[in-house]
Amino acid sequence: MFPVVIIGMGPGNPELLTLAAKNALEEADVILFDCMPDDTLLKTFQFKGEIIAIDKKIDPTAMVDTMEKHYRAGKKVCRLKPGDALMFNGGGKEVRALKAKGIDFRMIPGITASCAAANIFAVPITEMDESDVSVNFVYHDNETNHSLLKDLAGILKYGSTIHIYFANTDCIGQIVEIITSVGVTLDMPVVVASRISAKDETSVKTTLGKVEATLRSLDMKRPMLFIVGKYVEILSKKQIIPFLMTSEH
Predict the structure, then answer these.
(1) How far does Cα 64 stand from its chain's mean position?
(2) Pick from 119, 111, 186, 178: which is nearest to 151 by CA?
(3) How far, in Å, CA of 1 to CA of 29, rounded?
(4) In the prediction, which pLDDT does 237 show?
(5) Cβ–Cβ contacts within 10 Å for residue 24, how many?
(6) Kindly report the CA angle at 93 between 175 and 141, in degrees rounded to 5?
(7) Peptide bond preceding 223: is omega within 30 degrees of 0, i.e. cis?
(8) Using H for helix, E for strand and C for coil, what is the string for 49-109?
(9) Closest-CA residue to 68 (of 157, 111, 133, 4)
(10) pLDDT reading at 159 higher than 50
(11) CA distances from 93 to 6, 55, 111, 141 (A)
């Protein structure tokens, strides 16, 4: 039997897919996914394997069950996950389930949205000899999450950077309130990036004090990433890798 290959597909741009991932997908008999930024990757490469979309909201066990079914049938199975498979998107639960069932698997890492945004827009996230910490954080509107963000926010006073993934702009005021409650000043630089690596990607540089009003005036699409830190700035708005070699920035 062939091991199930769990692939981090990156932020969505096909050219940010790793060579290892592309090779595995080209050999796959079955390609499974439950969510992705859009269908650009699948349309671009037109892999020969059967492509199956799984709705885990309807049946949380459906993805693992489907992987097991095709694995035991002797097929080459690839499981696509946005960004990196083990960061913020439930990859760990699936891997544990596969291991419990005795299903062999291997992982292929993907580029996370925070790393992609930093490079696409040339946003420094650390500074040699000045800033040695960079933290990724997913914002949820609950007390435990708010307390955790408050605990983390103190590192901003020492030049560190926090990348905050969030679903909509309604939460920005709350995020700013939590961060400033530990003494971080309102002039702390912020970059917000939207639709990272897609054709309609955008970014804006502002400050903690102005970010809520700035986003209210713009039509930035989800998903978005909030990067806050002393050394955060946009040094370039041009992508290092042009989208499909055709997009102009």
Answers:
(1) 22
(2) 178
(3) 13
(4) 58
(5) 20
(6) 20
(7) yes
(8) CEEEECCCCCCCCHHHHHHHHHHHCCCCEEEEECECCCCCCCHHHHHHHHHHCCCCEEEEC
(9) 4
(10) yes
(11) 12, 16, 20, 23
Cα 165 to Cα 23, 151, 219: the distances in Å are 30, 17, 17
In the chain the domains, ranked by start, together with CATH numbers, are 4-108 (3.40.1010.10), 113-229 (3.30.950.10)
pLDDT band at 161 (very low <50, low <70, confident <90, very high): very high
Is a pLDDT exceeding 60 seen at residue 1?
A: yes
Can you give the pLDDT at residue 2? 96
Sign of the Cα torsion 145, 96, 92, 36 reads negative
- Helix axes 91-100 and 62-72, enclosed angle (nearest 10): 50
* pLDDT bracket for residue 37 (50, 70, 90): low
- Alpha carbon distances (Å) from 144 to 17, 141, 163: 34, 9, 18
Contact 108, 8 (CB under 8 A): yes
Question: What is the C-alpha to C-alpha distance for residues 237 and 239, in angstroms, rounded to an integer?
Answer: 7
Tell me: the pLDDT tens digits for 60-79? 899 999 999 999 999 999 99
Say how many residues make up the chain.
249
In whole angstroms, what is the distance from residue 51 CA to residue 83 CA? Answer: 19
